Amino acid sequence: MSSGLVVALSGGVGGAKLALGLSRVLSADELLVVANTGDDFEHLGLSICPDIDTLTYVLAGLDNPVTGWGRRDETWSFMETITALGGEDWFRLGDRDLALHVERTKRLAAGHSLSQITGDVCRRLGVGPRVLPMSDDPVRTRVRSDDGWIDFQDYFVRQQCRPVVRQLAFTGVADARPQPEVMAALGGGRVRAVVICPSNPFISIEPILSVPGLRAAIENCGAPVVAVSPIVGGRAVKGPTAKMMQELGLAVSSATVAARYGDLLDGYVVDAAGSGDIKTKVHVAPTLMTTLEDREALARTVLTFAHSLT
Questions:
Q1: Is-above-0.85 flag for pTM?
Q2: What is the pLDDT of residue 8?
Q3: What is the model's pLDDT at position 275?
Q4: Structurally, how many domains does the chain consist of?
Q5: What is the pLDDT of residues 25-46, one digit of tens each?
Q6: Which residue from 31, 62, 140, 269 could staple onto 129, CB 3.0 to 4.6 Å apart?
Q7: How far apart are the C-alpha atoms of 235 and 66, rounded to whole Å?
Q8: Which domain holds residue 154?
Q9: Chain centre to alpha carbon of residue 111
Q10: CA distances from 244 to 153, 172, 174, 227 (A)
């Protein structure tokens, strides 16, 4: 298989699984993961970056396999005390996880960029591949429900995805600048594949593709763009993807997700149940990742398929 750089676009839990698989079949300098920052928000005076942190913990081997978010071997003294004091406890921050948010907030206030902070944290935690935010400028996903506009984490965590989704918006994205290293990598002539991980297309991937210049840079990088469907067996594996699709009047299918990405895609990896009525070239393979071996196998499948499209 040819050498070169693989650029992966990822949200949190589902995307991080494939990112981990890619990290285990590629050398560290062959993989660049571009993280969604639309989920970022400020809470208890701290800057929280859920998707970056999930990717970091997964790639460092520190993730919590039970919850799918946060760190393993976590303790909860901080949250217990916040609750006792009558503070906001709807977004749970473990004691070990809390240290990262405190340090990030301090460094941002000192003028460091989110990219610089993320790179340093990854190095200190032993993450080999580069993990970069889609932009160092703030972008915030907002959800319009029947009661008006709410912040994404309010919808996702505090209200447990209960509100009906009528519309999505990415506040600040029109003025956001794409992360410079990401743009340099895409324009450097050594990208061999762009992989869109099986993250929620609406709230994890579209914020990335909405940053001015990023989608065009991907289209013009000269490498095949391959997405992995987040729909397995006709349903979403994790999170509110299927519920969102239904509420937005869309069929819950891999074909719907492919249509959302449009002509950006050169190839699409789906499970057998989702292979009908897709306009781009399709590769059918097991896409459910329950074990580490599954993650590695899917990563190899995606890279082999991408190579066949060059």
A1: yes
A2: 98
A3: 59
A4: 1
A5: 999 999 999 999 999 999 999 9
A6: 31
A7: 21
A8: 5-308
A9: 25
A10: 15, 22, 23, 19
